[in-house]
Structures are given as structure tokens and as C-alpha cells.
Amino acid sequence: MCNTTSNIVFLPYMAIFPMQYMTALFVGMGLSALVPSLITLVQGVGGSTVCVNTTVVSVVNETFNRSEVVQLPVESAPVFSVAVFYGLMTVLMCISAGAFGLLLVLPFVKKHHVKQLHSLASYSESEDTKKPLKDENGIDSSCESDIPKHIDERSRLSLTPQQQQSKPMPTLTFIWLLLLEAFICALAHSVLPSIQAYSCLPYGKRALHLSICLSNIANPIACFIPLFISTNDLKWLSAKSLLGTGFSAYIVFLAFASPTPPFQDSALGEVLVILAFIAALGLFSYLKVCIAGLLRNEGKRALFWCGVVTQAGSAIGALLMFPLINATDIFTMVQPCSR
User: Fold this and answer.
1) End-to-end distance of the chain based on CA atoms, in angstroms?
2) How many of the other CB atoms lie within 10 Å of CB of 41?
3) How do strand 65-75 and strand 49-59 relate by DSSP bridges?
């Protein structure tokens, strides 16, 4: 609930800050996944599994019993308890809430607020409704500028040259960006995480751990890239999303092929699945920042819908994957100590 409401509410709020602050927001989102992952690695959950030889006796009939030696997995004990883990998560959320509170009250933060083009229009409309048609001398003032010159000049100086010269985004482009955002979030937030164990465990627990940790590291790093390499070309964004979909398709293929995917007994297979997760999730993080940056220029309402489709895409992906994993035999998990 906290993640859902923060995405929908906080994205429109970021419209009052410069574009580079949007990058900081997505870096923070990436760190919100990385920090808990690092804590779980320190905790040791899902760590080393020891296969212990155990004798299992089965009764064949009243006079004959059959015994066999099998290997059973024994998980290592965690370094600290679940209560400590949730305590650390509570501290993290309190720090985040405190940071947001400082954004609201610190005076120097307000100096970084920018004016939006649409806010000038709304200001003009509100002033037009309040201004009388004639002044105290009886002279008609309806043809005068609705926005005081000093306010208009100050507002436009706070905009970038691209924003001052930009035209409203075409409706079809706006819809396509929202659909692209929903598709990316469905893959990055629901589909790929739900099948990560199926695609990585056949190559060993090390592959699973590295794919989780390194992809979470790649997430915030990729959010910095739009500061240096950004694009407003819709075709280029679509091509990059298609490339990320290709990496995702390879991961889905490995999950379908579990428990015997290609290159299972080779280091090449382990390297490929780790790189596929890093490339897919890194590309999707980069694209989310680029799309949010384009929609930011359209105002708070566009960012609100960006937050809505972010959660809608994630929900659709979860609703699709839940029955496929839990109600069908499409995916088969590798059993511990089976190799």
C-alpha cells in the first residue's frame, strides 16, 4: 500500500522540481529495493544449503523393511531474526518519511521549485475571473495582460529553453508512453521477479543471489544515465524497450525450460542468466526515468497518470503470473540436492 500510494502521489509532486530531481526519485526507488536485498544477504536467508545423507526406512510388508540413503537439504540458520529485519525496515521508512517532511518545511528547498507552463495558464484563467472589466477610472482593462509581467518573466526564467519552446504532446504519443510504462512495469515488477527462482536456480544458488543483488545495484545506476544520455525520440525509446523485452523473453524461456535449461552444467549458462537480468532490469529502469521526464513536461496530471499506469501494469503482471505459477505445472522448481 505504501509503495502504491507513493508512486501515484509522489510523481505529480515532483513536477515542482527540476528534471534532475526526477532522476533522484528513481534512484531512491532503486535503493529502496537494493537496501533490503543487502540486508537479507547479511541476514543469510536463502544462503548456503548443506545436503546431509539421511537413511530413510520404508515398510514393504510385515517381515521386510527397505532402507535407502538419500540427501536432504538443511538450511543454515539466519544471522538475525525476522523481527530485527522488520525493525530495520521500519527505521528505513521513518528516514524516508523524515526526508519528505524536510522537503516540505525547509526554506532552501522551496527555492528550487520551478513553474510549469500549465500553471501559467491556470494563473491566467484565475486572474481573468477575478479582474474587473473596468478600472477605477472607468477604462476597459480586459485587453491587458492577465499575468503581471514580473511574475510571468520570473516563471519563464525558471523553465528550461526546451520547456519554453515545447508544444503540447500529441494525444497518441501520450497514450503510447503510458502503455509503454505499463508494459515495462508489468515485466520489471511482476513477471521477471516471479520467475527469477525458476530461471536461476538450475544454475545454482549463486546464480540466483548474484542476479538479485547485481540487478538491484544496476537499477539505481541506470537511473543516473538519463542525466548524461537522454532521448525524446519515441522510436528510440520503443527500440530500447524492445531490446529489454528480448532479454526478458530469454529469462522466460529459461523458466519454462526449468529444471533442465540450456548450458545447465556450464559456467556460460550462469553468466548468461545473470547478465540477462542485469540488462533487462537496468534498461527498464532507464526507460522509466526517460518516460517520466517526458511526461513531467506535460504537468502534474500527466505524472499522476504515469503513477497510475505504473501500478496498473504491475497489478496486471501479478494477476497474470499468480495463476500460472500456483495453479499450473508450466514452471518446475529445481529440488535441492537433486544434482
Assistant:
1) 40
2) 15
3) antiparallel
